[in-house]
Amino acid sequence: MSNLAEEVTEFGARPDIFRAAREDNAQMLRAALDAGESLTQVEEQTFRNPLHIAALFSSRNFIREALAHRTAEPWSKDGSGLLPADLCWLKNDFETHDILFEAMYYKGWFLDLFNDQANP
Length: 120
Prior knowledge:
With about 120 residues, this protein is mainly alpha-helical.
């Protein structure tokens, strides 16, 4: 177990990736990942992963940290077919939406749309 997992445990909290998402706690996210939790885990009823939960709670620090991890899936859909970015959009949280959107599309993707149409 890493020092981060031990630090969080010392505060009396088990490293829980969904709690970290709700509380915008990047340190707990790292500890949960170190303890074997994954960003691909889903809640049983909603099929939402931690990125969905973070999007609902506008947990921008958590999202930035999570997107740097290899198991982050910003394109994953929940049980209603919504992406984490969709949940931000629905609640008019455009700042968090933009963080997810940038992770989903590379810079310059919009210009490539026009280049592809101009050069069939």
